[in-house]
Amino acid sequence: LRCVAHAGESDGAQSVRDAVEVLGAERIGHGISALDDSDTLEMLAARRIPLEICPTSNRLTGVALAHHPQPYADFERAGCLVTIDCDDPAIFRSSISDEYAWVERRAGPAALERFVRNAIAASFAEPAAKRAMDARLAAAVAELRVTPRS
Q1: If you placed Cys at 5, which of 25, 44, 85, 89 could pair as Cys (CB 3.0 to 4.6 Å)?
Q2: pLDDT > 90? residue 71
Q3: Residues 119-149: pLDDT tens digits?
Q4: Dihedral sign, CA of 73, 26, 5, 16?
Q5: Maximum CA pair distance of the chain?
């Protein structure tokens, strides 16, 4: 079985490190507190451990406070692999579409495309399925970039 762990949401950076080094986590849900420890950030970047960033949850729980208002950007600057995700939609009343729209308004369409590509790469799908998803995304993005005639 593959291993994904919620870590670094309310606990410190050590919880993220433990999730990777002790549990063998291949993806981290949240991981925000890793931003407070350069060694943990370097480990995540070097191992290409994807971080599932959930903007609405992070804001409403206070995890992403003033010092990390847009943690996805901080993680990217550190060289980490970031995906945008939806945490507990019934509780936070947010869908993945809502999360994508929020990020697109703040980071732009190119960043959103990058995060979706990262999500494909971070998925546990077989390589052929990942290639198919990448191709579908490329086609959809190309279609969106077509300027309508007036």
Answers
A1: 25
A2: no
A3: 999 999 999 999 999 999 999 999 888 656 5
A4: negative
A5: 59
User: Which of 44, 61, 52 minimizes the C-alpha distance to 122?
Assistant: 52
Partnered with residue 28 across adjacent β-strands are 5, 51
Whose structure tokens read 């190309």? Answer: 142
Per DSSP, the residues of the chain read ---EEEESSSS-HHHHHHHHHTS--SEEEE-GGGGG-HHHHHHHHHHT--EEE-HHHHHHHTSS-TTSSSHHHHHHHTT--EEE----HHHHT--HHHHHHHHHHHH-HHHHHHHHHHHHHHS---HHHHHHHHHHHHHHHHHHHSPPP-
Q: Which residues are catalytic?
A: 9
- With 0-12 / 13-18 / 19 or more C-beta atoms within 10 angstroms meaning exposed / middle / buried, residue 107 is middle
- In the chain, what percentage of residues exceed pLDDT 90? 65
Instruction: Let me know the angle formed at the C-alpha of 26 by 50 and 115, rounded to the nearest 5 degrees.
Output: 20
Domains of the chain: 4-145 (3.20.20.140)
Residue 117 one-letter amino acid: R
Distance spanning both ends of the chain, measured CA to CA: 53
pTM, to two decimals: 0.87
